[in-house]
Structures are given as C-alpha cells and as structure tokens.
C-alpha cells in the first residue's frame, strides 16, 4: 500500500547465553505450509509493524531496532516485513537483535531509488543489469542472517496501471533471484510476491506466478502475500470477504498470507479479524502482517514514536496484543498433510481467470547478468550475526493512558524458540527438538552459520524429515511445497 514502508518477518531464537545471538530455526516451505525444519511444526505469521525512520533504512539503526524489537516481542510478533533497504549499510546489529528476539524478517528487495525497482508501466525500461545488481546486493547483504525468512521480488507491481506484460517481468526477477541464491548462497531462501488489494487481479496474479513452468522452474514464486484491507471494524468472516479468499486459495500449493492488513476506516482498530484469520476456518492461510508499526500521516501506526527515545503505545497496540494472546498455538503449529502435499499446477493459459497476461515467454536476462549470477557480485557487503549484549529498553515507553512502562527488556530466546504471544514475559526455553543442540555450549552463534551451510537446500519433500537431521540453529529454508507460517506476521512500517 505504501511504497515507503519496510516489512520483514522474523522468527528468531538465540542461545541461552544472552550475549550470544544464536540462529533461529530454519523454515521450509512444504506445499502450502511454512514449516519449522527442526520440529515439523507449521509456522504462521503474527505480525506487528515497526517504523523507524522516514528517510533511512530501518534495519540500520541498532538502538531503534532494540527499542522496536522489545515492544514487538512483548506484543507476540514473530515476523517483520521491512521495505526500503539499502544494501551497502550495516544491518548486523538490527538483524541480530531481531534474531535474538525470535523474530523472522521478510524483506522487500526493491526501494524507490534509481535502478532499484521495476517501473510497472514500462518494466522493460527498468529490467536492467544495474537493477539486478541492486537486487543481488540486497540478497548478499541479508542472506547470512539465520532469521531471514524470505524476500519479496515485488510489491504491488501489478495493479490497474501496470503494463499488461508486467507479470512476465516479475517471474523473470524471481527467476534471477532464485538462480542467484542457488549459485551464491549456501541455503535456500524463499522468494515471493506481495500483491495489491485489487480483487480482480488477485487470483490471476497468484495463478500466473505460482504455476510450474518446465523451461524455467526457478521463476515460480515460493509464497504469495496479499495486501488486504477488506475487514474494517466489526466485520465478519462473510461480510469482510475472507470467506472468498478461503475459496480462492483453498487448494494453494504455496503459502498464502496477508503481507499487509489492518483497515483503519473504523478507529481505534480492535483487530476483531485476528481470531478469524488465525482460526480453523482460515487455516489455509499462513497468518499476516499488520500494517504498520510506526504512526505516520496515514494513521496506521501501532506505536507513536515521538522522538528517538520516547514511544507511546497506541490503543491499537493493546487491542492487537489482546487478540494475539488468545490465539490457539496448537492449531497454528499443526501441519496439514493435505496442504503440504499440494502440487503446483502446470502453467497454461486455461489456468488464468479473467483478463490477464497468459504468456510465459519470459524476458531474457539483460546483458552481463549471467556472469553476475555465476561469479557473484564482487566485493558485496555481506551481513553477519553479531552478539547482542545490550538488552535494556533504550527509550521511555508510555502506555495508552500515559503511564510509563518500566523494566522493559529484550528476552534473548534459545535457538529452538521463535517468538509468540506470552513467551517472553516469563521465559523458559522449550525442549529442543531434533538434534538441535540448544543446550550446548556458548558457541551457538558460530554453529549457526555452520549449520546453515550444512543444512543446505531442502528439497521439496525434505521439510519435515530433514528438519530432524539438521543441526542446531539452522535457518529457515524454503523448499517447494506448502509451508504454513504458523506464527504471526508483523509488519514493520516505516514512514
Ligand atoms: C480443490 O480441489 C478439489 C479436488 O480436486 C476440487 O474439488 C475443488 O473444486 C478445488 N477447489 C478450488 C477452489 O479450486
Ligand atoms: C503522536 O505524537 C505526536 C508528537 O507528540 C503528536 O503530535 C501526535 O498527535 C501523536 N499521534 C497520535 C495518533 O497519537
Ligand atoms: C487442510 O488443508 C486443506 C487444503 O489443502 C483444507 O481444505 C483443509 O480444510 C485443511 N484442514 C484443516 C484441518 O485445516
Ligand atoms: C517456455 O515455455 C513457455 C510455455 O510453454 C513458452 O511460452 C516459452 O516460449 C518457453 N520459453 C522458451 C525460452 O523456450
């Protein structure tokens, strides 16, 4: 909805030693579900959002990230979505803080700068070597973080204004990203697309991007996000149109979730949609990311950041926390064998509903891009996890009634845990599953990267069984298949 927002999803678990940021467990995509590799549990996304700054990359300011991560962890968020990232900046502190908080990140590779996005009205003018160099640099910058859940290759590129063949360019960018990851990154990282809230375009976009193309298998998206603002105030499953989504995506072969949600036509936002979104009726979906973290002109914020060291929780934050706290974690973490077994349909014009592009003759790579993929970006700025030593809230925080909230701090989670509502308040690490050595030595941080490389690429059938054989602190891996985001999707918004 907002091109300046940043979103990311994070599910992170850290070692028992708070000075070490351990890796979170990797997620795989198994059919239509996101799955935590080590346990085989489904992962749904509960989300919140975080706004950091209007003019800078939100994951480059460690103090702001610590402040936001503490408040998101307390809320129960397991994933943030972040937009407007700048590949050359240092993101180590922020990524490590969210990792320690048990929060995954879903990142948009595009931003508004020159050579950093596809022009929806004339994508062929911006699908260039310079653009793909930007995209690959973002991949290099974030791939090393274990709590990276995945990337969006595009956000709302397809809308009423877009060129008719824009969908083919999105598949091409997805292909290039996945080929780059396969060649240059030592684990699988999912690449998805985030669709605009335009009813007519939703089904065909998902059909076009999510089908199997024999001559370009890597151009298929791994997950589908939709920006959805149709539930306002006290709507219902039927009146909101959520029932139609369940019908539409009932047989999805890839995870589908709200990449933004939270209508604000009725204020305050009481989030009565949350129990429905995470309830049995909508189990085909993998959660959603609330738009957005920081209050700004368009009035969607969960928190009002009045200065770098002063935050006021809005009424909406409290309503969301209440709804999150009631969620049925058992339901959210149950994998569904029908959903995980869904196979993508073969791309075919008959698959596409409505008036939409239905040719899969994808644009060829711009000159020089094959070489970029085979050799990797030279002297890329690659992130690395760092220890999180400071956990105290660096800002003054006030509740909705103006009361100051004291003693807030980051709870560093063990690597087998991702954040969920109520976890951080009185934290005891859960029993590790699989071979994960969460109770092991303080070298968890180091082992995470080793595991990451050894856990490698999950095959499409690997998700659940492979999980138990992966080592400690494996990152989320997206294989093909249906995985459920069994956690919350929180969106960080940024004004
Ligand atoms: C899902 O698949 C079943 C079995 O093939 C079919 O009967 C049903 O119509 C499909 N639903 C949708 C929404 O495509
Ligand atoms: C957020 O804080 C600013 C600065 O104090 C204030 O002007 C604004 O009204 C606040 N917004 C909301 C929605 O509380
Ligand atoms: C399992 O997934 C299928 C779709 O793949 C869905 O129709 C069914 O309702 C789901 N079952 C449960 C218990 O959520
Ligand atoms: C790949 O397959 C699609 C669909 O069959 C076709 O339209 C396209 O021309 C093929 N591309 C190449 C490079 O052969």
TrEMBL record:
Disordered: region residues: 419-462
GO cellular component: plasma membrane; side of membrane
Annotated compartments: Cell membrane
Protein topology in the membrane: Lipid-anchor; GPI-anchor
Principal location class: membrane
A GO MF term: 1,3-beta-glucanosyltransferase activity
Keywords: Glycoprotein, GPI-anchor, Lipoprotein, Membrane, Signal, Transferase
E.C. numbers: 2.4.1.-
Biased segments, Low complexity type: 428-462
InterPro entries: GH, Glucanosyltransferase
UniProt family annotation: Belongs to the glycosyl hydrolase 72 family.
Protein name in the entry: 1,3-beta-glucanosyltransferase
Organism: Aureobasidium uvarum
Upper taxonomic lineage: Eukaryota, Fungi, Dikarya, Ascomycota, Pezizomycotina
């Amino acid at each position: 909805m907002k091109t300046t927002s940043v979103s990311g999803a994070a599910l992170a678990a850290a070692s028992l030693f708070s000075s070490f940021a351990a890796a979170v467990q990797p997620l795989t995509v198994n059919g239509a579900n996101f799955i935590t590799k080590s346990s085989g549990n489904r992962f749904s996304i509960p989300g919140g959002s975080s706004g950091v700054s209007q003019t800078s990359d939100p994951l480059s300011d460690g103090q702001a990230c610590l402040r936001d991560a503490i408040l998101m962890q307390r809320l129960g968020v397991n994933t943030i979505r972040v937009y407007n990232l700048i590949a050359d900046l240092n993101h180590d502190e922020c990524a490590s803080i969210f990792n320690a908080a048990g929060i995954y990140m879903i990142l948009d590779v595009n931003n508004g700068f020159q050579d950093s996005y596809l022009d929806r009205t004339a994508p062929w003018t911006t699908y260039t070597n310079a653009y793909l160099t930007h995209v690959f640099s973002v991949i290099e910058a974030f791939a090393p973080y274990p709590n990276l859940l995945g990337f969006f290759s595009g956000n709302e590129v397809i809308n009423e204004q877009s060129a008719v063949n824009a969908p083919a360019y999105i598949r091409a960018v997805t292909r290039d990203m996945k080929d780059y990851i396969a060649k240059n990154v030592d684990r699988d990282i999912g690449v998805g697309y985030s669709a605009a809230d335009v009813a007519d375009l939703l089904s065909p976009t998902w059909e076009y991007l999510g089908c199997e193309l024999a001559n370009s298998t890597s151009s298929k998206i791994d997950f589908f996000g939709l920006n959805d603002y149709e539930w306002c105030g006290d709507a219902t499953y039927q009146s909101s149109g959520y029932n139609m989504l369940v019908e539409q995506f009932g047989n999805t072969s890839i995870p589908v979730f709200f990449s933004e949600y939270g209508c604000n036509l009725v204020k305050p936002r009481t989030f009565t949609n949350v129990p429905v979104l995470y309830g049995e009726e909508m189990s085909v979906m993998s959660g959603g990311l609330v738009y957005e973290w920081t209050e700004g002109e368009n009035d969607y914020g969960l928190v009002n950041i009045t200065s770098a060291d002063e935050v006021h929780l809005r009424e909406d934050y409290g309503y969301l926390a209440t709804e999150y706290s009631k969620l049925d974690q058992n339901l959210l973490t149950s994998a569904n064998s029908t959903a995980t077994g869904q196979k993508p349909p073969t791309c075919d014009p008959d698959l596409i509903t409505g008036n939409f592009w239905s040719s899969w003759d994808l644009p060829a790579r711009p000159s020089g891009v094959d070489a970029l993929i085979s050799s990797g970006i030279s002297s890329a700025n690659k992130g690395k996890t760092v220890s999180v030593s400071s956990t105290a809230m660096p800002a003054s925080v006030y509740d909705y009634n103006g009361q100051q909230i004291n003693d807030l701090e980051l709870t560093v989670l063990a690597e087998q845990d991702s954040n969920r509502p109520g976890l951080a308040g009185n934290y005891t690490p859960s029993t590790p599953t699989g071979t994960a050595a969460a109770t092991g030595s303080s070298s968890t941080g180091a082992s995470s990267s080793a595991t990451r490389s050894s856990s490698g690429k999950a095959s499409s059938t690997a998700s659940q069984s492979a999980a138990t054989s992966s080592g400690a602190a494996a990152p989320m891996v997206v294989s093909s298949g249906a995985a459920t985001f069994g956690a919350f999707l929180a969106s960080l918004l940024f004004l």
